[in-house]
Amino acid sequence: MAFEGIGASPRRVEDHRFLSGRGHYTDDINRPNQVYAYIKRADRPHARIKAIDTAAAAAAPGVVAVFTGKDVEADQLGGLPCGWQIYNKDGSPMKEPPHPVLAIGKVRFVGDAVAMVVAETRQQAKDAAELLNIDYEDLPPVAGIADAVKPGAAAVHDDAPDNVCYDWHIGDAATVDAQFAKAHKIVKLELTNNRLIPNAMEPRAAIGEHDPDSGEYTLYTTSQNPHVIRLLMGAFVLHIPEHKLRVVAPDVGGGFGSKIFHYAEEAAVTWASAKVHRPIKWTAERSESFLTDAHGRDHISTAEMAVDADGHFLALRVKTQANLGAYLSTFSTSIPTYLYATLLAGVYKTPAVYAEVKAVFTNTVPVDAYRGAGRPEASFLLERVVDCVAHDLGLDPVEVRRRNFIPPEAFPYQTPIALQYDSGNYTATLDTALKHADWAGFEARRKAAAAKGKLRGIGISTYVEACGIAPSAVAGAIGARAGLFEVAEVRVHPTGSVSVFTGAHSHGQSHETTFAQLISDQLGIPMSSVEIVHGDTAKIPFGMGTYGSRSLPVGGSAIVKATDKIIAKGKKIAAHLMEASVNDIEFKDGKFTVAGTDKSKALAEISLAAYVPHNYPIEELEPGLDETAFYDPKNFTYPAGCHICEVEIDPDTGHVDVVNFTAVDDVGRVVNPMVVAGQVQGGIAQGIGQALLENAIYDEGGQLQTGSYMDYTMPRAHDVPSITSSNEVTLCTHNPLGVKGCGETGAIGSPPAVINAVVNALRDYGVRHIDMPATSARVWSIINANKPRMAAE
Amino acid sequence: MPQVALTVNGKHHTVEVEGRTLLVELLREKLRLTGTHVGCDTSQCGACVVHVNGQSVKSCTMLALQADGADVLTIEGLAAADGTLHPMQEMFREHHALQCGFCTPGMVMSAIDLVNMHPDGLTEQQIREGLEGNLCRCTGYHNIVKAVAAAWPLMHNKQLPQAAE
User: Fold this and answer.
1) From the list A18, A685, A720, which residue is nearest B98 (CB)?
2) In terms of residue numbers, what domain contains A512?
3) What tens digit of pLDDT does each residue of A636-645 get?
4) pTM of the entire structure?
5) Which residues of chain B lie closer than 8 angstroms to A11, CB-CB?
6) Is B109 inside a domain boundary?
7) What is the CATH number of the domain that holds B41?
8) Looking at the predicted complex, does its ipTM rise above 0.95?
9) Is the domain of A704 the same as that of A565?
10) Distance (Å) of CA B147 to CA A10, A19, A150, B95
């Protein structure tokens, strides 16, 4: 058997169907007698709905039904729930205004769902929607953070008159103040974390279906977590019990966080399918994706680092304003708080950290988790501040980092802001990255670039993040309204092949391959004997889905736990068959052996005995070989690493060319190096996108100016370089595989490395900081506004 | 309703369409060839690329009626009759050039045309610029570029010239 276990890079199981055009995405599904929904969306950011005349639309060719907020109210549907409760500094709960499935009374962002037209064809539904006559009374728009906090600003929600959802803090303010009082210097930086649009390549889609005989609803949807959607939509919105609601998330074309959340269209098509007695299909056009998929980031922050004369960090003080958009998306409230501020110690032994976060409502698309979710905001702020410390004190940025690193012998390390890092070696990732990037040879490359008239810069970031959000009890104590375990069922069939039912969902992460590798490793059978089943609440016992790089650390651990149960039961069966004591049975390479003898039974013999229990310890043991495990993590996992970016800037155009990118990441044990490298490369491309290209811009009127691929700059093949990536390994100490997760490191580590490189390249122009994205226009303006120091001197 | 007659993956079809029906809608909704994807509404993403009379075309930029008489090849028609993958498909698999798979059909169809159009060699820069019309959000393009370079010798049956830049 070819080696396919942990550490191998077998080619992917899922690829053949994708490469053959036989992927099975939601929009590829068509149900018998299906009709189509088109959502009429608000074309203005903030307005009262005075009246909606649906008569002409309802009478248009092919139209089956038209629904508005009035129908939602009449049927007493619940609002889309928020999954995380945050408390203000004074202990009062956050403001949590309702988010109706279709707008009731007011629209609150351009793209807000106002009505749903259902017709025989997509085009008929769209044509009929043009005939809806909506009488609006416009209200002043709150187009961004600055608008929201302005005195006298319009209120997005009546029950949050100052537009503040919460005003939260973490850390020890008094200790931070004391440290600041004795500091040699306070290094201050104001910065923006640009708003992004996730842009999974598959637009969201949903098909709702109702069986009047059984009363069962089925929702096919583009989701990263079908069980979570079943829970949220069933329990809170449509009031359908779990046994009457099946949620299927088939192949999903990328998520990056944006397909975690429960969206209005899912509830609308499921609800209405029972009213029109036909399956209803809705597929977003890309323009709708821009206007309705939850956006990411959007922070304005002030950071102050107190340092001694040698650049040792004494304390960090951070004040952040976060834009939550018009409504609270599913996990929105946790992102700028527990997934952001708790990471502000970073890889450093900063003894005190205090962070305040004010989260506001605006008339913009809801903001929620996007690849990295909070942690890229933390790493960008911290790694920019660290470079500013080096800049302001005239120190080498690498040396500043070394002086402040949590040393390898300090683990487990308790940070001053809640988290306890279990393992890491930040010096090791730094040293390897410096070597791979040829940091020492940079000056020669800078001179060579200068000779060609180019400005060359190098930048570094050393980051840590937190994955696999949990334990459930801890998450619950800080406001999570859900458990954060994962579930696996491992079913050994009578002839020895295995089906694994996992609550994690693969939408690019390669679970069908890497989870099969786990089973191959644990049970000693070839991957070809293993199938991985996911994405269907009717098949999988339960699950919390895929986000926060949790699939392997949490979902993989559940698989190991279930497999351990299989082996334990198998040993009992083997002991019976071979007339030995169960304590003498060893399991290795797919065989149960009586220790010290040549007597053995293969897994397939044991499974056959379990399902054909003629000679079987039936008194003590149930037949069958099928085990389920729920795994609740003991702690977060803490991937960390060092990213080094080298750029060349053309001073005539301001164009920033990323010429080298080196990543050395510690994601714990690596199951499939090929897959890990792929995840890192993709994350880095998104990070380069954030740093140089991508920016969601609202004008002062609340209209999204970047609502298509002609306006929102996605990284294309020629915008990103080849990437040098490798791994250093320290094992996670609290999960059975020693894994930490690799899905988000690229997007977390790379933006500050890129911007540090751009600032470094522009240092002769007196630049200390540049906000993302460092577009050609922005860089060109800086170059032209600042004469280079060398020319002036 | 007007009719369009065309050949798709070697099979002849005559289909009634509305005048406004796009080629990609004909493929996905009338012929149920759902391997060709729709990723945008501005002809920017390339998920819908197919070959029309041997050349790569974004099938959302063409009306179905414009394909009357055309010979169309989609991702479903790329593998040999015995199931053997096209070298480009094989190299995408070998080099892990796909993750979620959604952009993949369009990316593969574009890449084949790109390699076909460069019989004398293909540099990394040319590959990156040649795939300008195809967005991928998962891979960072790194492995796609590797896969296309690896498919070139297989498709042209000779070594890829080094450093042709």
Assistant:
1) A18
2) 485-631
3) 999 999 999 9
4) 0.97
5) 93-94, 96
6) yes
7) 3.10.20.30
8) yes
9) no
10) 16, 13, 53, 6
